[in-house]
Amino acid sequence: MKKILYSLILISALGLQTKVDARPYDTAKVEQILAQAHALYKDDKNGANADYIPALAEVDSELFAIALVTTDGKIFTQGDIDTRFSIQSISKVFTLALAMEQKGAEAIRDKIGVNATGLPFNSVAAIELNEARSVNPLVNAGAMATVSLINGDTGEQKWQAISAWYAQFATAKLGVLEDIYRSESGSNGHNLAIAELLKSYGRFYGDVDINLDIYTRQCSVGVTTKDLALMASVLANGGTHPISGAHLMSADNVQRVLAVMTTAGLYETSGEWAYTVGLPAKSGVGGGIIAIMPGKFAIAAFSPRLDGAGNSVRAQKAIDYIADKAKANIFAHLD
Ligand code: GLN
To answer: Is the whole model's pTM more than 0.70, yes or no?
Structure first.
């Protein structure tokens, strides 16, 4: 009985109201869970900043922030919430969303692919090993090809469309972090090679240099952890922004984006993440991660030190903790 009561308190704390429990959020409880997650992992020094993009190595490794946005528009934050950092691969989710809205879910499956590669995010082997040259939109190869699918006659038009799209998700205009953009542009040989390889197989849909530059710019977009949680909240809310009310994506497309996040959002450790946490998520080498509990809330966490796959150590732990306390897991039996 005690156990049931405890679960009910936790469930109501994060808005996971069941049919019998339609109480409003316990705001203090949600704040407490976020504070606990922050306190528990703020001294974890495991992992290291990404350094293959030189400017990322310069970011203060101790930064740590968490934000949660509920589908009824409540925002909770904790830690270094005003710090801007580069969105990196989390951008892939939102450009995928735009490409899917423009071209349809079938085009994404046929022209890019939607299977996990099981290999690192910048793997060339993933392209070579798969005869159809099918990857997915959440690894570098597929993400760059996804950028090449975005409508626009010029690179500038495409970029305007992507940045306006991101702004609608964040409910604010987001700028590019110029130091990150310059640093990444100056050390981009590997991504260039991947794009050229895809192009040689007829799996890249525009000019390589122009689309690689847009991809690099989108990865260098500066966000706060709160911006990220606001962006992710659209995916938790079936495509409608919980704060602005803007209808940005069809519910069908949201469902498909969440599916790709589940299988490939944390690269080669996506399986372990699904197994232990059970929430569609996406990481970036800037140290951010977003995670979605459909219909309920989105979490974003940020801290620069990464594990071997390129996923923030503290962000993973914080999200795992919060999801556990909220009993949020898309694979859980609902009774
Ligand atoms: N901009 C980075 C790259 O292309 C993004 C990688 C990531 O966040 N995993 O390598």
So the answer is: yes
The tokens for 274 are 């699904």
Closest ligand 1 atom to residue 89 Cα is 8
Residue 284 Cα to ligand 1 middle (Å): 7
Architecture of domain 2-326: 3-Layer(aba) Sandwich (3.40)
Instruction: State the distance from the centre of ligand 1 to the C-alpha of 140, rounded, in angstroms.
Output: 7
Tens digits of per-residue pLDDT, 98-150? 999 999 999 999 999 999 988 899 999 999 998 888 899 999 999 999 999 99
Indicate which atom in ligand 1 lies nearest the CA of residue 52. 10
Buried/exposed code over 196-230 (b: 16+ C-beta within 10 A; e: otherwise): ebbbeeebbbbebebbbbbbbbbbbbbbbbbbbbb
Beta bridge partners of 297: 70, 293
- CA 112 to CA 115: how far, in whole Å? 10
